Every structure is written in structure tokens, then in C-alpha cells.
Give the backbone structure.
Amino acid sequence: MKAKEIVTLQRSLLVDTEKLLNKQVEMEGKSSAYYLSMASWCHMMGYENAAKYLYTHADEERMHMMKIFRYINEAGGHAMQPEITDIRHNFNSLREVFELILEHEIKVTKAINNIVDHAFSVKDFATFSFMQWYVTEQREEETMSRRALELFDIIGEDGVGLWTIDQELGKLHDASVQGEA
Ligand code: OFO
């Protein structure tokens, strides 16, 4: 019997599930790097509150990554430190940054739903249950990203518009940290 087969006999985590979870580790790690890069651009451009929002978001994504990372190992699998490459460093506007965030979060939601669907279909109820935290988190993250983007239409970007949007992003950040948004 090969070493890999012995290992998989000593756990209930299926190889396919482990692969999907490791893919999600990579996605969360990339999210963290992507948001850190956006935070840096915002900071450099003087959008202080947008930068604060994104520095926090980058930290949260790393926490999301680590939660799955530990789960894989605790379930008898092997969590893989992902390669993080192709991170974009420059953006055309503050609005573009927030458009990209919403687009990215929707992709993450789809990936999470795919893992939940898979876990249910193979009767891996431990993983199914573990992933419920991510289902709720994605609902909140999508809502928050949508609210952030809506500020651009509600306030408008002319005159002091961008400054005001940055102030409102700071409030959204603070409310989220306090668990209100
Ligand atoms: Fe990990 O929730 Fe955003 O991407």
C-alpha cells in the first residue's frame, strides 16, 4: 500500500475536498495580497480612510486563509502555503478599486458555495458545517463592498466628492470593525 493511501485511510477528509480547500486557501491568500496592494495605492494617493478600510480587509482575508489552513491539517490533510503572484499594483481610480473589490468578493462567494455544495454531496458534514461561517461572512462582505461602491453614485466624485467618499469609507470601516455593518 502506498504512503498516500495509508494516510487517506486514517481520515474522513476526501482528497477532492482537500484540494478544494487548498484552492480556497490560495484564493483567500490572494485576496489578502490584492487588498494590501489596493491599500498601498490608496495610501500613496492620499485616500487615508480607504487605505485604513483596505489594510483591515487584507488582515481579515489572511485570517480567513489561516482558518481553512488549520482546518485542513486538523482534518488530517496537508495545507499548502500558496504561491501569490500577479498582484496588480496600480489602479485608475478609487472607484475602480471598489468595483474590483465587489467583483472579487462575488467570485469568492461562488467558490465558497462550490465547496459547500461539494461537501454536502459527499456527505462531509464536518466540512459543510465548518464552511457555514464563510457563507455568512461572504454575505456580509458582499453587502459591505456594495455599500462602499454605492457611495460613488450617491455622493458623486466631483468637487469635494472624493474627499467625502473617503470620509464615508472611514465610517463604514469603523462600523464594520464594531460589528455594525
Ligand atoms: Fe475571504 O472574504 Fe473576502 O474575499
About this structure: The pocket of hydroxy diiron-OXO moiety is lined by residues 28, 31, 61, 64, 105, 108, 137-138, 141 (CB under 6 Å). The mean pLDDT is 94. The chain has six helices and no strands. The longest helix spans residues 15-45.
